[in-house]
Design brief:
Pathway: Cell wall biogenesis; peptidoglycan biosynthesis. InterPro entries: Enolpyruvate_Tfrase_dom, Enolpyruvate_Tfrase_sf, MurA_subfamily, RNA3'P_cycl/enolpyr_Trfase_a/b, UDP_GlcNAc_COvinyl_MurA. Belongs to the EPSP synthase family. MurA subfamily. By secondary structure, this protein is of the alpha/beta class. The protein folds into 2 domains: about 1-20 and about 235-420, Enolpyruvate transferase domain (UDP-n-acetylglucosamine1-carboxyvinyl-transferase, Chain, Alpha-beta prism); about 20-230, Enolpyruvate transferase domain (UDP-n-acetylglucosamine1-carboxyvinyl-transferase, Chain). It is built from 14 helices and 24 strands. The protein has helices at about 20-30, 50-60, 90, 100-110, 125-135, 165-175, 190-205, 235-245, 265-270, 310-315, 335-340, 370-385, 395, 405-410; strands spanning about 1-5, 15, 40-45, 65-70, 75, 85, 110-115, 140, 145-150, 160, 180-185, 205-210, 215-220, 230, 250-255, 275-280, 280-285, 295, 320-325, 345-350, 350-355, 365, 385-390, 415-420. It has a 4-stranded mixed beta sheet. The protein has a 4-stranded mixed beta sheet with strand order 2-15-17-16. It has a 4-stranded mixed beta sheet with strand order 4-5-3-14, with helices on one face. A hairpin with a 4-residue loop joins β4 (about 65-70) and β5 (about 75). It binds uridine-diphosphate-N-acetylglucosamine (UD1) and phosphoenolpyruvate. Uridine-diphosphate-N-acetylglucosamine (UD1) binds near residues 163, 167 and 305. Phosphoenolpyruvate binds near residues 118 and 372.
């Protein structure tokens, strides 16, 4: 059992090193498995629990993987992939397991998905993935818990996503890369992580055009080769550190090449947070009261749902009433109850939340219900009076690397503890 203990009151000051993106590295590990020869090298790999699970899953299907933690580098040799089974005990622990299916289909002609995990956010369907595989010629047998996908070879087709699913787009691109002929994916996701994955696949020899337009064309090729690729910075991790500076009235320099916070920056600016860029470094500071804000989550370039919970914490510390409308997931307000235990005033009605600030927060025992509610409670702890203890810290470790150490380097009073229960 992992637990975070935070004693609030310290302003965060200094340089924060932003990790590589979780939502880019996981599909990249899936992409590396498409190469039947050679060794893929991934750099700027975040050392998070989801990456450890992805390594275990790749090994379970027969890949050879080296995770060099201090170098933040993964070396993957997929030449000996031999088992089509994604075992439940690993696959159910993270969402990224779903991204191994295209490689298994291409390499072995079948994939047995014993389960897919990830944050518990309400319904998280995979129908676009399986309907897409079917249109490319696969047979999909959806059992109660196990899904069996088989294909003697895939053939290009026109695919349409009802909504621009992030992993759905990545999976269908990977499936199309080695399919015969041309695939068109309409209403594809625009997230920068998807574009980074397209970049890596293109280096591997894939022929993909239209990334970032919502209308992607993939010309199938006969094989893909192993390459070296550097994972883009994690804009969600960066957003969290920017918010930590904001709500502690601190000043933090974010280091992570090419960081673009987009709408998150604009929303924080509206709240009174100041940003200025000095070359490759983004400075974030706040030295006055926070103003309330309205947030509507959306797919990129909208406000990322993954930063909705951390933003709820910031809103609880703003002077006035903020409104949050969650449009991506139907169960992403578990944070509200925990924040209210600390003294916040958050009222949830369906997909909307009203946050009445500012109420003083007081440290207490709270629970992370998912990765982002967990990190949002860490943020609350930084601003609270007294000690906040956050249980189920493993969920935070799924997506943030060396969190306590990175925050301590900025002056936060935070420890990560492991206990028997
Ligand atoms: C590993 C990874 O990259 N995870 C991210 C990814 O998750 P993930 O790729 O699972 O999220 P999706 O974009 O697929 O899901 C968004 C919404 O679409 C619905 N949907 C999705 C697929 C499908 O086949 N049918 C369907 O109905 C889901 O139920 C959900 O309501 O994007 C989410 C939305 O930006 C982020 O919160 C996650 O951090
Ligand atoms: C929802 C998230 O992750 P996953 O899709 O990996 O569960 C997240 O990162 O907030």
């Amino acid at each position: 059992m992992v637990r975070y203990r935070v004693r609030g009151g310290n302003a965060l000051r200094g340089t924060a090193f932003i990790q590589g993106a979780k939502n880019a590295v996981l599909p990249m590990i899936g992409a590396a498995l498409l190469a039947a020869k050679g060794r893929t090298v991934l750099r700027n790999v975040p050392i998070i629990e989801d990456v450890r699970r992805a390594v275990e899953l790749a090994e379970a299907i027969g890949a050879y993987v080296e995770l060099h933690e201090s170098e933040r580098t993964l070396v993957i040799d997929a030449s000996k992939v031999s088992s089509p089974v994604l075992p439940a005990e690993i696959a159910r622990r993270f969402r990224g397991s779903v991204l191994f299916t295209p490689a298994l289909l291409h390499r072995l002609g079948e994939a047995v998905v014993e389960g897919v995990g990830g944050c518990n956010l309400g319904s998280r369907n995979l129908d676009f993935h399986y309907l897409g595989y079917k249109r490319l010629g696969a047979i999909v047998d959806e059992g109660e818990t196990v899904i069996h996908v088989k294909a003697a070879g895939l053939t290009g087709a026109t695919l349409y996503l009802d909504t621009p699913s992030h992993t759905g787009t990545e999976n269908l691109i990977m499936a199309a890369c080695l399919a015969k002929g041309t695939t068109v994916i309409e209403n594809a996701a625009l997230e920068p992580e998807v574009l980074d994955v397209i970049d890596m696949l293109s280096k591997m020899g894939a022929r993909i055009s239209g990334g970032g337009t919502g209308f992607i064309t993939v010309e199938g090729v006969d094989e893909l080769h192993a390459v070296e690729h550097t994972v883009m910075p994690d804009r969600l991790d960066a957003g969290v550190f920017a918010m930590a500076a904001a709500l502690t009235q601190g000043e933090v320099s974010l280091v992570g090449t090419g960081l673009d916070l987009g709408v998150v920056r604009y929303k924080l600016e509206q709240m009174g947070v100041e940003f200025h860029r000095q070359g490759a470094v983004l400075h974030v500071s706040c030295d006055g009261p926070l103003r309330p804000i309205n947030i509507i989550t959306d797919t990129y370039p909208g406000f990322a749902t993954d930063l909705q919970s951390p933003m709820m914490t910031v809103a609880a510390l703003a002077d006035g009433t903020s409104y949050i409308h969650e449009r991506i997931f139907d169960g992403r307000f578990a944070l509200a109850g925990e924040l209210n235990k600390m003294g916040a005033n958050v009222e949830v009605k369906g997909s909307r939340a009203v946050v009445r600030g500012r109420t003083p927060l007081t440290g207490t025992q709270v629970t992370a219900h998912d990765l982002r509610s967990g990190i949002a409670l860490v943020l609350a702890g930084l601003a609270a009076e007294g000690e906040t203890v956050i249980d189920s810290g493993y969920l935070i470790d799924r997506g943030h690397a060396h969190l306590a150490a990175r925050m301590r380097a900025l002056g936060a009073d935070i420890t990560r503890e492991i206990s028997e229960r």
